[in-house]
Amino acid sequence: MHAFDREALTVAMALVPAMYARNKLFALHREPEVQRAKAKAAMIRGVVRQLAGAHGEATGLSVVRQGEVLVLRFRVPQVRFERRVELTEIEHALLVYLAARAGVRGLTESHEDRAHIDAALKRLGADIAPTLVAELRARQSERPSSW
Q: Can you give the chain as a three-state secondary structure string?
């Protein structure tokens, strides 16, 4: 078992969902921290889709700090839907970054947001590279020589 930087994995999996494909890196996806990062990345991408209007126009968008977390709230009146999401600083930065790319109004990306994302991605390389190399080598040794 390896300790992973869940924030860095969340950022990578939200930005490039297929980067760590489960069918190619199965052992990696058995790690609890990887599973949590994948779930958080999927949640963030889902919120961005909702804010971008996948089910109708999002209204009442607000972000309020409550202690250590940022609480994002919004409504989608067309489907009688309200959402409240608690986010860390990096998760909020990631959501704002992706929302800006999706054309969502009401969330403004800052240089600080980008710096959080860049720092997380830099941490990821040293954190996950040895595990990926080991898994890829194991898969190669399992292949018949005719491949």
A: CCCCCHHHHHHHHHHCCCCCCCCCCHHHHCCHHHHHHHHHHHHHHHHHHHHCCECECCEEEEEEEECCEEEEEEEEHHHCEEEEEEECHHHHHHHHHHHHHCCCCCCCCCHHHHHHHHHHHHHHHHHHHHHHHHHHHHHHHHCCCCC
Q: Which two tokens stand for residue 23?
A: 């069918």
The pTM of the full predicted model, rounded to 2 decimals, is: 0.76
As a whole number of Å, the end-to-end CA separation of the chain is: 30
Task: Tell me the per-residue pLDDT of 76-103, one tens digit each, with 9 for 90 and over.
Answer: 999 999 999 999 999 999 999 999 989 9
What are the extents of the domains in the chain? Answer: 6-138
- Predicted confidence band of residue 21 (pLDDT cuts 50, 70, 90): low
